[in-house]
Amino acid sequence: MTLDSESAALFDHVVRRNPAEDEFHQAVFEVLEAIQPALRRDPGLRDAALLERLCEPERQVLFRVVWTDDAGRAHVNRGFRVGFSSALGPYKGGLRFHRDVSLGTVKFLAFEQIFKNALTGLGLGAGKGGADFDPAGRSDAEIMRFCQAFMTELHRHLGPNTDVPAGDIGVGGREVGYLFGQYKRLTNRFDAGTLTGKPPLLGGSLARPEATGYGTVYFLDSVLAAGGATLADRTAAVSGSGNVAFHAIAKLRELGAKPVTCSDSGGFVHDPAGVDLDVLHEVKNVRRQRLAAYVEHVPSARYFPGETPWAVPCDVALPCATQNELDEQAALTLAKNGVLAVAEGANMPCTPAAVRVFREAGIALAPGKAANAGGVATSAFEMQQNAARDRWTFEHTDRRLKETMAAIHEACLSTADEHGMPGDYVTGAAIAGFRIVAEAMSGLGLV
Ligand SMILES: NC(=O)c1ccc[n+]([C@@H]2O[C@H](COP(=O)([O-])OP(=O)(O)OC[C@H]3O[C@@H](n4cnc5c(N)ncnc54)[C@H](O)[C@@H]3O)[C@@H](O)[C@H]2O)c1
């Protein structure tokens, strides 16, 4: 597939207008390419500059973040928040703290979020933010001071009906708690629905930490079921060892699969007996060590520095770390080893060349827009609980998550079918999400 001439001209325009934002360009190209069948079928979707508006963020906030470390030294970082689309609801999407974060990163993530959030059917706009702050090796007090300095600027742009951030890489419950504390102090309001992924006592939803990883596995389970297969006894290769990876591994185990790998930016662990969640929790969440320490606790496991897990033979692969972490070579290796399906727990983890390999080999690829939408869906459940001053049980929230993932899976499959591309989840997810947001944009008039 490629772009028709009008879409190609729009893409060129996006590239010229947003120089040096490669990840954003990649995300825009992927969507424009995937929605071609819908544009062919209904040329009216281009009316009123709809595609041009869709590719231009509604607002972008860049700000300086000044904070002091434990030795009293001052540091300067850059903060970002992009509100990409509020056609369906308040801007919604996480904050990422990582040294490589740039405006292009945040824009790609916010753009992806448009379609993902639309797919949940829960009335969510799309945004994303973060800072080029590296939390590695920082003390708890330093993290708190950074979060407070970050929120001191950002708070004026947020609100439960305006813009609702959550976590992402480098931002978990601890950081969201500190961010919310500063928000509350500055605004004089306990507006719990302004941030999601909060610790439970501060109004956080039960099952929100688990939701992205669990949801990815629920989606993968549906993908296999659609082909008459199950997850039981399947070997899984998982990348990452953070929030998404951890809970994906947990759910894979629960459903009878055997996840044998996990990774961080330093390398990966292969544990043929199945990744031990207690050890992973101790190493990453309690001691906050590098993953290499895993093998000190599990001598039968091996650590491979500087490598990714994709050469380990597996039936299913779940990239759950970061963007572009699974390239063409890795995809070819996975295909050669007979992988049945790939589910993106991370955002845009497969490079365009890897996506092509999976497509051509007929390997089911569940794109992040659909497969990892369980996190933001459960954030919407957290907002509902906060608005109603209610608390749902873990089981109730998990059931709603399961239903949501099943509905997204169905929407992707039926949309792909309708457009003559049965089983193509990449096309199905992009078109199904796009149609929802396009209809909302048309209904709102030219804004
Ligand atoms: N947290 C959520 O609810 C959520 C929702 C949807 C999508 N995602 C996406 O899932 C992915 C992981 O997010 P998370 O919340 O688990 O973050 P996290 O900070 O908890 O974990 C990130 C993981 O990625 C690894 N990592 C970071 N940079 C890497 C690199 N360059 N190479 C290899 N590994 C690297 C880290 O070591 C860590 O294991 C991201 O793409 C994020 O955007 C997260």
What is Rg? Answer: 21 Å
Shape: globular
Q: What is the CATH C-level name of the largest domain?
A: Alpha Beta
User: What's the architecture of the largest domain in CATH terms?
Assistant: 3-Layer(aba) Sandwich
What is the number of E strands? 13
The amount of helix comes to: 40-55%
State the order of secondary-structure elements, H for helix, E for strand: HHHHEEEHEHEHHEHEEEHHEEHEHEHHHH
Major sheet description? 5 strands, mixed
Across the major sheet, the strand order is 1-2-4-3-5
Bound molecules: nicotinamide-adenine-dinucleotide
Describe this structure in words.
It is a single chain. The strands form 3 sheets. Strands 1-2-4-3-5 form a 5-stranded mixed β-sheet, sandwiched between helices. The protein has a 5-stranded parallel β-sheet with strand order 7-6-11-12-13, with helices on both faces. The chain has a 3-stranded antiparallel β-sheet with strand order 8-9-10, with no helix packed on it. It has 3 domains: 1-54, Glutamate Dehydrogenase, Chain A, domain 3; 57-198, 3-Layer(aba) Sandwich (Rossmann fold); 209-371, Rossmann fold (3-Layer(aba) Sandwich), CATH 3.40.50. The chain contains 17 helices and 13 strands. Helix 13 (352-361) links the parallel strand 12 (341-343) and strand 13. The chain is an alpha/beta fold and 447 residues long. The chain has helices at 5-17, 22-34, 36-41, 50-54, 103-120, 140-154, 173-187, 208-226, 243-254, 277-286, 294-297, 328-336, 352-361, 368-371, 374-388, 394-418, 425-444, and strands at residues 59-68, 74-85, 91-97, 126-131, 163-166, 235-239, 258-259, 261-264, 267-270, 302-305, 316-319, 341-343, 364-366. Nicotinamide-adenine-dinucleotide (NAD) binds next to helix 9 and strand 8.
